[in-house]
Amino acid sequence: MRHSNKIVLVIVCVLAGFTCYSQNNTSPYSILGIGDIEGSYNNKYTGMGNAAIALRESATLNNSNAASLSALDDKFFIMELSLRWKGIVYQGAGLKAPYNSTADIAVKRANIGFKFNKKWGSSIGLQPFSSANYSYKSNKNIEGTGEYLAASYEGTGGVNQFYWANGVQATKHTSLGATASFLFGSLNQSETLVDNTAAEVLTTKKNVYLRNYYLNFSMQDQRQLNKKWKMLTGATFSPRTDLLAETTNQLYNSSAVLLKEDELTNGTFSLPSVFNAGLAFTKNDQYTFTINGQFQNWDELKHKGVDYKLVNSNRFSIGFQNSNKRKNYYGETFEHHMLQLGLYGGKTYLQVNGQDLYDYGFSVGFGKTLPQSGLGIYTSIEAGQRKSTSLNLLNENYLNLNFTFSYRSIWFVKKKYF
Questions:
Q1: Alpha carbon distances (Å) from 21 to 14, 107, 121, 165
Q2: Separation between Cα atoms, residue 407 and residue 76, nearest integer Å
Q3: Which terminal Cβ of the chain has fewer Cβ within 10 Å, N or C?
Q4: pLDDT for 344-386, tens place per residue?
């Protein structure tokens, strides 16, 4: 046990180093809304196209559905840490190498799960909800003068999600779950204007601080169809939520001297109601086939700006898993290794210049459990595109390499050795 704890400590230190020294991907579309909303759950099931709403296991934290926590093994706790490398190549708008690509690596999720009793499982975690990072230049029309000034824009920030999820076994077949989250973060934008002589520079900095509570309700149902086949269903729902938004504006000259600062203004940014549903079939606890659908009701918010608006989005995904299970020295069944495949696609919540943006791709995953140390290592690859049918908009070709590290051990109970 001491040896495995050292392994876990090394992994945590290495991943923490990646977090400190990582670079953020430049994403032009993250200037809109609250940035790029995270589309992956960054867990063991990412290799199945994230089609995990209906899935539940005793030794894995499924953060896509809190109801699954009721399936965790009693007297055990699980810690998980997820890391993702992402590379993007952009197409369109005359972009050419080496200015058309970017890459970064960052920790995407950290959480711990455990059982309070035989029917009640719980998990606490932290993960990104959205991110913004962009940089571009353009000419800005000075209203009333007919003149144009060179302008450059830079933006960073995002919204984080700290959550507490709980799942309870309500009946023999059905579990219910709820996740209470606190969303918090900031979106920071700077606009720099340079006159035609390049002698005068004005920089406006706008910071929007966002925060509020966010709820999600979930359920799962599990039925044994016959000796070989089992059917699982799941669903989650998040109601519309208004994030509190505090905005500050500051004006600086070329010497970074503050010329003007507006008073703090209060407003809101609304998140839509979101519905997820999933269906899965497993054969002999080895083969799993699953399908998921998601709908986000952005139209109800009527949020729009110059040349863009937020529209209803959807996402569909299908996944397959082949799980090879074995028994350890004590006769306990564990997952020795697994292989996953997935497909996903759908319409994003952004409509730019009247054109919808779509996101689709495929995934492959592999995982292995080391029973003596309590460690599980899961890796997956996602390759896809975010694009529109218009030649005037940028298309993104991306590749994600995902790594999830899991550690499982006894929860407040001493192990017995024979």
A1: 11, 11, 35, 30
A2: 10
A3: C
A4: 999 999 998 889 999 999 999 999 988 778 899 999 999 999 9
> 385, 381, 340: which is closest to 360 by C-alpha?
385
Query: Hey, is 116 helix, strand or coil?
Result: coil
* pLDDT at residue 2 greater than cutoff 70: no
For residue 57, how many other CB atoms are within 10 A of its CB?
Answer: 17
**Residue 134 one-letter amino acid:** Y
Q: How many helices, marked H, and strands, marked E, lie in the chain?
A: 1, 20
**pLDDT surpassing 70 at residue 418:** no
Say what percent of the chain tops pLDDT 70: 86
Least confident of 264-278, 297-311, 312-326: 297-311
Measured at the CA of 170, the angle between CA 164 and CA 172, to 5 degrees, comes to 130
Domain boundaries, the chain: 2-410
Do residues 150 and 194 make contact, with C-beta atoms less than 8 angstroms apart? yes
Q: What is the pLDDT of residues 112-147, one digit of tens each?
A: 999 999 999 999 999 999 999 888 777 777 666 667
Alpha carbons 379 and 393: distance in angstroms, whole number: 32
Give all strands (DSSP E) within 39-119, no chain letters.
76-91, 101-115
Tell me the CATH architecture of domain 2-410: Beta Barrel (2.40)
* Whether 231 contacts 281, CB under 8 Å: yes
Poorest-pLDDT segment among 215-219, 281-285, 353-357: 353-357
Q: How far apart, in whole angstroms, are the C-alpha atoms of residue 233 and residue 280?
A: 6
278 within 8 A of 51, measured Cβ to Cβ: yes
Residue type, 25: N
**Largest alpha-carbon pair distance within the chain?**
87
Segment holding 83, helix H or strand E: strand 76-91
> Using 50, 70 and 90 to split pLDDT, how confident is the model at 325?
confident
Asked if residues 366 and 379 have their Cβ atoms less than 8 Å apart, the reply is yes
Which tokens is 117 given? Answer: 């009793």
* Beta strand residue intervals within 225-328, DSSP E: 229-238, 241-252, 258-261, 265-271, 274-283, 287-296, 304-305, 308-310, 313-327
Q: What is the mean pLDDT of the chain?
A: 87
